[in-house]
Amino acid sequence: MTHLNMEQLVALRDAGSEPGTAAAREHIGECPLCAGELDRLHQRAARLRALPTLRPARDLWPAVDARRRQERRRRGVRWAGGAGLALAASIAAIAAVGPRSVPVESVPEPVAGEIAEARERSQALETVLDAYNPEARVIDGHTARVAQVLEDRIAALDQELQVTELERSRNAREEELLQLWRERVGLLDALVDVHVTRASRVGL
Amino acid sequence: MTRALFMDPTFAANADAVLARARMGDSAALEALFRAFEGPVYNLSRRICRTTEDAEDVVQETFFEVCRSIRHFRGEGSIWGWIRTIAASKALMRLRRNKYRETDELEDEFVPMRREDTALRMDLEAALERLGETSRAVVWLHDVEGYTHEEIAAMMGRTVSFSKSQLARAHARLRRWLGEEVTA
Fold this sequence. Notes:
Chain A is an all-alpha fold. Chain A has helices spanning 6-13, 21-30, 32-49, 61-97, 109-132, 141-167, 174-197. The termini of chain A are far apart. Chain B contains eleven helices and no strands. At the A-B interface, helix 1, helix 3, helix 4 and helix 6 of A face helix 3, helix 4, helix 8, helix 9 and helix 11 of B.
C-alpha cells in the first residue's frame, strides 16, 4: 500500500468507519512514516487548541446594550400600538351591538377612554424619545444609570401590561390596566426628562 | 477533543440564577452573561474573521442575538454551546457577506511572501492566519471547537465532503508552512 494522504489521515483521526479505514489503520501499524504523520497531525491539533485566547481591545458591551435597549423600546411602541387597536376594536364592537348584548365584564366607557388617552400619551412620549435618539448621544454615568433604571422598570411594566391585556377578556381588570398605563406614562415622562432635559432628579 | 472553557467562577457559581434573570430581560444578568463569554466568543470570531473589526462586529451581533433569544434557551445543552453556535454562524455569515477569497489556491498565489516564508518555517499563529478563510474556519471549528463535519457543513451550507476536504487541505498547508514535511 502507498503512503496515506492527508485526507485519509484526517479521516483516521476522526475514528470513523468509512470504507478504507480498516486498511488505513493496518497500514499505520506497519508504516512508521505514516504513523509519524498521524502523530504530527494530532500534535498540530493540540497546538491549535493551546493557542492563546485573543481578547477584544475595547469594551463591546455598551454597544450591545444600546442596541438592545433601542430595539426593546421600538418593540414596546409596536406592541402598545397593537394593544390600542385591540382596545379600540372592542369598544367599537360594544357600541355596534347595543346595550343588551354587552357582557357583564365589558369595558366601562369612561375607563376605556382614559386607557386610550394614556396609551396615546405613551406613544407620543415614545416618539419624542425616538426622535431624540439617546443611543447616539454621549451621556454622563449618572444620567446613564438613571435612564437604565427607568428603562428596566418600563420593560417590567410592559410585561405586566401584556399579561393584564390578555386577561382582560376573562376578567374585568380595566382599573388595573388604567393604573398600569398611567404608570408607564409617568416612567416615560421621567425618561424623556432624563434624556431631553437632562434632569438629574426624577424622583426615583 | 475541544478547547476547555474556563468559565468565570462568579458566573459558574450563579449560572442558573443569572440565566433566569437574563430570560426576564434583566440588564445586569445580560451583562453578566456577556462578561462570562465575551472572551471565547471574540477568540472564535477573531480566529475565523480576517480583521479585528469584523471580529468585534461578530461579538456584538452574537450578544445582541443572545439578548433577544435568551428566553427561548431551554437549557437542553450548555449555555456556552448555545452561544458558540450563534457566534460561529455569525462569523461564517460575515465571511460570506465580505465575499472573501474562496479558494486557497488564490491565497497561495496572491498573499505576499512574508518574513516567515523566507525562513521556510512559520509559527502556528502566522500559518493559521495565512490559510484561506474557508479552510481556516473549518480547521478552527473542527479541531479546536470540536464541531463535526456534519455540523460544519450545515453551518456553512455546504456538503460534508467539502468540510472534510477543506480540513485535509488546511492540514497539508499547515504541515508545509510549519516545516513539518518528512520525505520518504
